[in-house]
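Appendix C reproduces, verbatim, an entry submitted by the partner laboratory led by Prof. M.T., so that reviewers can inspect both the input and the predicted structure.
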Amino acid sequence: MAGGVRAHYVATVLYAPVLRRTPGAVVVTVSMAAGKAHRDEYGVAYSVAKAADDRLAQATAAQLRAGGVSSVSLHPGLVRTEGVTQFAEHVDLAGSQSPEGVGRVVAALADDPDVLSLTGQALDVADLAGRYGVEVHG
């Protein structure tokens, strides 16, 4: 909770004045599918934290929309970070996303003139990659 949703909340609150002066700005809260529905393998704390991230994005959207600022929750799939790849022999990385690919999706999202139509939503990186024609697996 402290390293996730609390950190996301504090960062958003601190930067809200800057965001309000920047119509078209986007707040991206990184979450995951555990925010949509609990599964036993997630564990209670992780599942609740991700649900809180998704709700934070939704509530932030309601607060900032009038100023032209969007807020979304982003759900990447399995991302090949150093923390994940150290367990490559135990984890199936087929179909995993590269950190650069996720970054390309965030950049495309930020560049979308219709991003306000997505505000308040939890969005899957794979779906956005299709929308924007971005490669996330490379």
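Residues 78 and 92 are 9 Å apart (CA to CA). Additional entries are available on request from the coordinating office.
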